[in-house]
User: Fold these one by one.
Assistant:
Number 1:
Amino acid sequence: MNFGNRLLRCIGLLSLIVLASACSKKVEPEASVGADTVLKNGYVYTVDADRSVAQAVAITDGRIVYVGADDSVSSLIGDNTRVIDLQGRMLMPGFQDSHIHPIMAGVEASACDLNGLPGIPEYRSRILEYATNNPDVPWILGGGWAMSVFGPGGAPNKSILDELVPDRPVYLSSQDGHTGWANSAALAIAGIDKNTPDPADGRIDRDPVTGEAIGSLQEGAMSLVTDHIPPESLETRMAGLRYSVDLLNSYGITGIQDAIVYEDHLKAYTELADHGELSLRVVAALWWENREDLSQIEKLVALREKYTSDAIDARTVKVMQDGVMENYTAAMLEPYLVPSGTKGIPMIDPELLKTVVSKLDAEGFQVHFHAIGDAAVRQSLDAIEEALIDNGALGHRHHISHLQMIDPADIPRFRELDVVANFQPLWAYADEYITELTIPFIGEERARWMYPIKSVLDTGATVAFGSDWSVSTANPYPQIETAITRKSAINDEIDAFLPEQRIDLASALAAFTINAAFVSRRDRDTGSIEVGKYADLVLLDQNLFEIEPEDISETTALMTMFAGRVVHGELPPGK
């Protein structure tokens, strides 16, 4: 055998040995790679442009990678994919609240909380109980009392507080945050007596005979006392925020616009975000201080640059343009039907407001207005129009919140000026605030234009919804019900209020999802169930499209996901 043949034989033997060795070992197949989670067999209301309905959603790394039919999602199911059967339940985008006060509400919940109590006897019991249980607290603080309990004008007297807590200052804010109730000790610390003048943006309520301050402070007059209250600690604010995050997630809320934010609040948000506890996408509306001049813009820019992050967007400024109708401080085009003939209080001179908004717009800020009365709404629209003239259309998505009354001539201007109408829909029914504290003092004719949600929608303008919690519940389901029915979600005996302003369910859901995401500049990443967006989702216990509108308020969130992570409830069993 020559050398060449030997070489070929050796190579052949070697190949057989290698092959035999390979065959003797068990070769493990590669694990198939799929999505992290697949949710299937659901009623997936996507809130996309077509308002389409799907069956299945796939999620990878916190984002949506598939939306469609059950049959087509199988290719995304790998060995490690968690597959969840939604059992036909309704899955939709997480709700977003466009006007809310979570830190303030959370702190108030742990203080002397009067929210939900029916009247003065219950207020007295709660205040005395809190003061007795907290003997070392230097100030008795809290709030949540209803102006309607104290009648027209919403002006409680200090005598009640003096009797209950004579030895410490007491300050309790009203449910809507526009009136303060102080005892004599708090008034003394603030130096308020019958000679103290009313501030330009508020009113000290006085005894009609003696002129003495009776203890209720309207709008800007509240700061005469609040400026003397020791600030909350960072730990207190963080505890309040944790409470609120958990509560909001339990409703299916995954995004918010905090409507009044100071630097202390930004610190609390940042701390929670840094510790991975902030399961909300937050827009922080920096407070515009009416008592300061335009130089404060420099400070607002600094706060924006310091605190804006992936979790927190501090590119919005909150401007308070008026008060509320119940205490006659909402700015009106025509006088209130009261002896003084007041038209309310524009918090910022309308011409100055134009300058303020134009400069904020030029600096890259979105402006979030508080406007209740028809004059304040018009002044806010005029200021945005001036900014458009001065700066051009910069696309900052300015929005006006509350909108209790809009003059019919101004309704088309929301669409024309690209202004978002930010309604609080739970207020659009005939409760005692409307029947006892508002309509008698503005008249039936003007009341026809209260909360004209459908009229604004019909122009093609963008409508977003918010709760203004803790003024009213943060739970979106009764808010949606009232937007559709214009009735109380609690008391079925109350007739529909301006039923011609009812809207449909799809519009109400959009206002709490994609439109709210739009006003918060999050619509590219959130607000609908579409490929590429964050998996911010809520699973409901009933299909809102298959029940009577009057049953919507009974809905609960079975599970809430934030970027694909369950932050409330739990996923149904799966493989």
Number 2:
Amino acid sequence: MASIAMDKPGATVLLMGNEAVARGAIEAGIGVAAAYPGSPTSEVLPTIATVAREMNIHAEWSVNEKVAAEVAGAASFAGIRSLCIMKQNGANVAADFIVNANMTGIGEAGMVIFISDDPGGMTSNNEEDSRTITKWFDNPLLEASNAQEAKEMVTWAYEVSEAVNLIVFVRGVTRLSYTRGNVVLGELPQARDKKARFPDLWDMDNPKKSKFTSGPFPVFHQPLHEKLEKAREIFEASTFNRYVGPEHPEVLIITCGACTSYSIEAVEELKVADRVGVLKLATTWPLPEKLVGKHLATTTKVFFVEEMDPFVERSVMELAASLLPATCNLTFYGKRSGHLTPYNEQSTNLVITALMDILGITYQPRDLTYDRAAKETATLVPSRPINLCAGCPHRATFWAIKRALTVDGRDGLVTGDIGCYSLAFAAPGFFQSRTMHAMGSGAGVANGLGSLKQFGFDQPVLAVTGDSTFYHAVMPALVNGIYNNANFILLILDNSATAMTGFQPHPGTGQLATGDPAPVVDMEAVCRAMGAPVEVCDPFDLEHTTETLLRMMKQDTGARVIILRHMCQLVKAKRKIPATYKMHVDPERCLGDTCGCDRLCTRIFGCPGLMWDTKTAKTAIDEALCVGCGLCHDICPAGAIIREEAI
């Protein structure tokens, strides 16, 4: 589409779920959008940023999710509708602000958090279910089932937020965020000259507690629960909750989100629409108890279909327990019964398999010949192991780390972090990373290990982090290390972008979310100002990088910093920066399996730009993938990989 701000109410456009969320927020008249990039939500903020000027919206990549929530919260305090975007892990970071904002309430303008979970951990290091967090926080929660509903639901969420004076969560999952669907556009707000004013100024003649300050008083918890009950009343009448099926179904499916489509498709595929009803819940917390209770009274079997934890399942079973003895004949199926798992993605086939068991029926979608052919065809698909991109500077970094730790000989170790370089736990990073938890945890764990000298700990500790992660969560850990004289080296892998999630800018890139220029927050200057000694290396200069690592490890005192700076090859491609070298293999020098290096280049180093030619039994350059970084020339012990200056 030409623009996410297309002013054509009633027009049907094809949108990704994330784009639909952005459109819904724009139709709601937001003035502020703040986020930290994280798949599967990374496209929402950039979509809004493309029209930020014309729609009078402040759109920013914040340094982390807590700050993003605070920025959005401040807008609400000042009367401006706001959107905060994060993936499931971000809720952990933002929790401290959100739980306190719930105690105080927000401003007159609504605030919505769009959070998308990642069942199966396709772009995450976990598959945390954020719904449990919203229940803990006491925030109203909505779940969209498709792109159209995502747009409409986000717009409606602002009305709910303003009605109950709470932040409202709209939850998606990977399939919702990245699946495209037809979306009918609504009207855009006509008034764009939003006026912000913080209403609760301190009056010296009439001092009072600010309504935006929680304080230590427990009285704030009671109004919060009263607000939740008001949200429940609103949810009881929500048209986003729908039922399809017979008046008295043999089996009642209760589902939500992306699983709605799986459930409906399974019922249609099995041709049991006369036996099975589907209750689709969009308002999953607080649960619309009257609506759910009415449907529980129509059946004896309830089957829960939802992504991840048995969140709705538990809530409904709690409700059923309170409705005894009327619900004593109910049998529940779902995660607790083992019919579905509380991990990985759900699918139509999984729902079909469960329904077959519950209904006692058989089903054969295709003949056995087709199934055999499908399995045989699957064997023809080449394996695609995880890897770093061709010419990735992180491969050079971890090669240098491996060399330096080997030469040092004191069993040094790497504490890892979240980013492309997380692959250091596996073959692409030569199995160097020993820990990987939350963003910034590499430096935090290194603090702890580097403080164990009194217990005889003498292993060198190298904490790796990315440039974006440095601004997100590492600076406090570095301050802590300097203050407590923890013995570790912080390696900042600066590849000039938030590469893992789509090359979003950050405070070190000199660019805002809207593309406008921004001042560069110099990480080297920041580290020096904190009091840490700093060295800067190009990881493609393997000798200098290895020597610097060895020298820094020998210092064996306090927190030190090495910035390993080389632009991501994909960023270079986007900026049309030409290759440095043209690579080829000298067939006379490459002796293949008889070289004595045990195929170091293709078996160990593993750059996708290198391949093993089975016809010649020698290494070759894959010209389609090679980016001409020249690093493989430095690692070949026979000097068989030749680099020449690119013309």
Number 3:
Amino acid sequence: MRGNLLAFCGALMSFGIVAGRFVPLSAVAPVSAALLLACAAACALGRRPSRVVVLGLTFCAMGAIHMSADAQGINEGITPVLAGRGAEVSVWGRAVSSPLSAGSRSWFYLEVNRLECCDTTYECRERLLTTADSSSFEGVFPGVRLRAWGSLEPDDGGKLWDRGASAYLNVKPRSADVVSRTVELARSGFSRSYRRMYSRSVAGMMEGVTLSKLDGIDSGVLEDLEACGLSHIVAVSGLNVSSLAAAVLVLGSLLGVGRRGRYLAACSAGVAILALADFRPSASRACVMGALASAGELRGRKYDAWAGLSIAGMLILVLNPRALFDGGFQLSFAATSGILLAVKKSRRASAGHAMLAVCAGAQIGVLPVILLKGEGVPLTALAANLLAVPVVGVLLVTAWISAVLYMAYKPVGSALGIVPDLCVKYIMRVASALGRVPTAAAGGPRWQVAALCLYAFALFVFVTAEEPRRTIRAAAFVLLAVVSVLAPGLPVMGPSSQDRVMVIDVGQGDAILVQDRTGACVLVDGGPDPELIVRKLSAMGVKKLDVVVATHPHSDHVAGLLGVVERFPIGMVLDTDVNGEGCEPHHRLLGETRSRGIERVVGREGLFLKVSGEIELEVLYPPVGLDTSRLEPNECSMVVMAKVSGGRVLLCGDLEAEGQKTLTSFHPDLECEVLKVPHQGARDAVSDELLSAARPALAVISVGRGNEYGHPSRRCLELMSAKGIPVARTDRDGDIEIEVVSGRIALVEHRR
């Protein structure tokens, strides 16, 4: 009963915080005071309301007032005022997040304690989003004390509010005290040991799990972890706290340490992880619950898990009400609630089934949060966590010990380092295998919705099942859900085992993927639909894109690239300098490219890019001297010759007749195995001169089925038929896969 009451108070406190988030303090305070006065008046009149009502209203009012006051403090602080003036400042403070990077820029949140501007010093406690060159943030981690200087910029869109920040600060930071430099030195020592002991990918993964450093993790590995629901293991969280605490308890028991000593050691380990995580909500929640459980165990009192969860939640919200809007807080408390429900249902079950029920309960808890955010649900998350989570505790302990021993005596450290090396490789293989399965979204196609319903029902059965037969039935439901979500993409699932070119069926538009067996990928245009191209690429096993090419600023070519830039890590965007003011998607694409720090290169004739050992790109058009400001975008469309495993693919965008004449005059020999026909096969899409110069073995047309333009035109098809060129079309053949082996091509059609 006590746990239920605390959970009720915590829920009403959260409701009050949500109300205070959007209602000003001038309105919240009178309403809250009126409600509390009404309760007091009722008591004075002898009509005493129940304790539940009084406590509920009190916590609700407390949350609303606390949140409103916090919001007012952010909006009326000194940093927003100075940011409005673009002031140059010096600040002293503490980093409260790990640096994140995109391209040449990095950023982290800085909690300012003291600020100096124009010979005036201000004492404050405000947050800033600090940005600078990536190299400037080496050695910055949560908790480090530093001094920084630079210019303030206002947060015009209110994007930083939920993180408690009020402005941007462009700075070059510098560590300010001996303690911070000592911690920085220790973290650097761990990183150096990892990088000397292991391969780059293993060392990066180990830094993520043990130090919460994500800058060294391979982007493909990070995508795999996110795709199968394991991203929480590389962001120090409740899992890390509980895993390390459990490992310390087991180790203490094996060493014969007394009960009090074991629990104190476990709590100390949890506090160390908590400090490393900069008191993140998930780690804070686990530490508070663990401390309460340890105290209860030592005093011989029964521990109420719901009460512990509620106390942890209210304590975090009292200290930082904005945490309610943090994704980590939401997922942590949702997962823990699901676990507690599962534990209650499976108290009499075997150890194996109890673990299965706990993992299923965590997935049930986070499922509503993921769906409310509009994100896809990883259907392999249950299996991934069952396989990977048990080794996290072993990985944490052995990685730290082996790194320390390696600093002292390399042979011993290297010998013990075999254990964490195997653990990391095992987790990476699990993530790589299960991360290939596409996620299912509530707003997706019907087959995704059906798969999502099957998965949710299976999780419920796992939690409530008391007989082995029901567990087997639930596993069958999960398998059926995975098959359902895989079915539409089975012909093109997984990373390619061959070098290939995929002409993707995106409707009335273009999207061509060039991929080799090592995983190097080039995407030329993205079609008109961002969601469709992202779904198609995910089904093909794409994790990152080395180069994205935007041939010209028309929506049927670049609109889909907006989703691609938001979803996938990208090395470079190859674009034209054509005036695209009339194309809003192109304008937004350039803005996203800049904001994410992605390198943008203007493609002109003569540009040559070697993407991998098997993929090369050569830009053939537009010429360097061409004045693109006076021409239509189609006439300036970028033409790229992609060389794949000795085969040549001529990608012409939407280049029209005049441009084709210029192209063939400069390049009379355009011999290729595959020609991508421009402009969806329109009447004048391809000239006789272009076909004579290219002499393709195959022509492909990317075109929408039943389009209003009548593409591809009869004239275009007859011209290629007269020259004996076979034609593949996405409106008829669906996704067109062309495998390339030593310059020879093989066509694999995926019909609708």
